[in-house]
Amino acid sequence: MEKSIHDPFAISIPEGTQTLTNTSAKNLVVLTNDGTQSIIVPASTEANLAYEASTFGVGSTCMSLTSECLKPQTFSDGSLSYGDNYFPYINCAGVYPQANITLALGTTTTDTLPFGVVFPNNGSFGEFQTTYQRVTTNPFSLAAVVNSFAYVSEGGDDYFVNNTGFFRHSRTGAWNVLYCNSTVNDVKYRYIPASSGTGGSYQTISSTVSSVRMATLVSIGMDMGVIRNILPSRIEGAGLRGGSYTTAFAQELSRELMGLSAALYEPIPVTAIAETSVVLGSRVHLVPLGLYLASVVIYALTTLVIGITALIEAHSVKFVKLVHLRITSSLPIVHALFGPVDCSRTWKTDGVEMFSTESEKDRLYVGPVKTQTEGDSFGFARAG
Whose CA is closest to 113, among 240, 244, 231? Predict the structure, then answer.
């Protein structure tokens, strides 16, 4: 097991690796909304909270030097040889920006391809074993050689692959020489929560170049071996179907430099809340809401169809209208109370037809009425 006594940066590897894989409970590396740099932020925040804070960020720019560093040999017959069976003829001496890179059999293997911080004045990887001792400026420079088989197509040897910077050579795969400048910045940013409640954007308010000491601390990720071993595989195929390989390399380099130095940072409570997004009502999931509304619409349409069908059927049944009149009309009710009703009679068009013709004595009289107990009183009686 690797001990921190053997590697002073081993203690940074757990938090750095967790931050890169989005499993850290403290830190998270995100890309700013303008895409220029990666910054480190708290791993979690309230969904409806907008805030402003200060942090550190890394912005990188990269270029491919493959075409400048590729030095083919010319044979006596005028033909060109771009390399041996192991490596292409790469020699970056005299190339600006300078990267002191030379690939040669016996001194270079696929496991020790140049990848690290270089001195900006001469492109040398220096005599120091640790990267932070080579970081003397901010921004600082890095050089790397990437070998990949993702950029090898069927047939053909010794050709450049689109505008990716990769050069296909024999059976050794495709090769790319990259030179990058990385800047560590003091960043003030504003977090804007997403309206959906998931995620959000990080807007850069201001960005100034940090001290050289801060750049030295951030560069410790280069000494962990993670960037050398993992960065190229994370962006395999970039630039083949659009986009730029150098841009992808620069963004991933910034993200990994920032993430692997995550052990240096500890989130602190905010001093002030910039804004709180108030949600009126409650949030609902669209799928259940859509199913509910669909069921309501189906129920309403079904009810409407049944109602219309019942109305049509009711009007087509004989005597339904007359029964309706018999129940709702006041005249048949009063007539039934005071006049003779012949239950054997039927009606054809009007409910009143079920009653017999009244004689004069059957008519109602309204006025003084004699009673057996209280004498005269006002009321209804038959005229007869």
Answer: 231
**For helices 13-20 and 245-260, angle between their N-to-C axes, nearest 10 degrees:** 140
Q: List, for residues 275-291, the tens digit of each pLDDT value.
A: 555 555 566 678 888 89
Q: Which range among 148-157, 265-274, 277-286, 366-375 has the greatest average pLDDT?
A: 148-157
Residue 367, Ramachandran bin (φ over 0: left; ψ between -120 and 50: alpha; else beta): left
Q: How far apart are CA 13 and CA 10, in angstroms?
A: 5
Closest-CA residue to 29 (of 180, 189, 142)? 189
By C-alpha distance, which of 270, 240, 249 is closest to 164?
240
Q: How far apart are the two ends of the chain, measured CA to CA in Å? A: 123
List, for residues 263-275, the tens digit of each pLDDT value.
777 766 665 565 5
The CA distance from 49 to 47, in Å, is: 6
Residue identified by tokens 């060109």 is 80
In a 13 Å sphere around the CA of 249, the CA atoms on its Cβ side amount to: 27
What contacts 367, CB < 8 A, 6 or more positions away?
A: 378
Please tell me the pTM assigned to this model. 0.65
pLDDT of residue 208: 92
